Amino acid sequence: xxxxxxxxxxxxxxxxxxxxxxxxxxxxxxxxxxxxxxxxxxxxxxxxxxxxxxxxxxxxxxxxxxxxxxxxxxxxxxxxxxxxxxxxxxxxxxxxxxxxxxxxxxxxxxxxxxxxxxxxxxxxxxxxxxxxxxxxxxxxxxxxxxxxxxxxxxxxxxxxxxxxxxxxxxxxxxxxxxxxxxxxxxxxxxxxxxxxxxxxxxxxxxxxxxxxxxxxxxxxxxxxxxxxxxxxxxxxxxxxxxxxxxxxxxxxxxxxxxxxxxxxxxxxxxxxxxxxxxxxxxxxxxxxxxxxxxxxxxxxxxxxxxxxxxxxxxxxxxxxxxxxxxxxxxxxxxx
Length: 335
Prior knowledge:
Blueprint: H1 3-10, H2 12-15, H3 19-22, H4 35-45, E1 52-56, H5 62-71, E2 76-81, H6 84-96, E3 102-105, E4 118-123, E5 130-131, H7 132-136, E6 138-149, E7 157-164, E8 170-176, E9 191-194, E10 202-205, H8 214-222, E11 226-229, H9 236-246, E12 251-256, E13 259-266, E14 269-274, E15 277-280, H10 286-300, E16 310-316, E17 319-325
Parallel strand pairs: 1-2, 1-4, 2-3, 4-6
Antiparallel strand pairs: 5-17, 6-7, 7-8, 9-10, 10-12, 11-15, 12-13, 13-14, 14-15, 16-17
Helix pairs in contact: 1-4, 9-10
């Protein structure tokens, strides 16, 4: 990304204020993604003048208008929205403000074949799998930015930037911290135990749970024997993704009264890292020991951001899943 592109993205909110699309009259579309986050992701996508761009999920229409501003008068922006009410509202506003965007009511999973191929595709949502249609509708060297699942665990979301080669085959992928609203309901994954009284608290564990006492490990987090406060600053999401990339046996996500986080379950022991600290049954439990080991490797590696981890696309069914890993040599990538 060059400085000129960064400057153009930074000026978007001044040239096209979010209130034009999100509204100030009590009829606003409440955005799932704050405008400053959309700006950050548009920097990653690197939309240039004259490009053809497809957006999946119109929402308020703001991001489509911003994409059209970046593509310029010689570019073409198409946005697809599945919800009829949001589509009609956004189309009206996009036309009212002379955005030049073509708004389409349709199935975002299918893309927009009649307007393809595109130089860029921006999907402000998270599919269970990246559809073939999106990759096949990009020119060679084109890029897709989309929400992705980096694990089947609840809340394991991130942002992927995929570059395609010939024939719509993925050539490269980088993963960044963040997330978008799911587009569909993912299939069941892992083994879950929840609080029968209110259903708000749950523990989900992946892998072989034969040696796990799920009930006792859940109880250990519901009423933990040890907690420890940490100030992760802005690094919490990166630590969370690091733990997911470590993929230990008994990788788990839990939501309990003391917090929500990711960690590990071993036997009847459990330990999770939340955005505020550590929750575990005992400071000396084997689960806490393993979690502390993963955190120590993250710190020793310089607390790397998510995009410095290794990422690959794995073919599954009729789409692509993202696998986030630590490099084989134990060192994070620098690019």
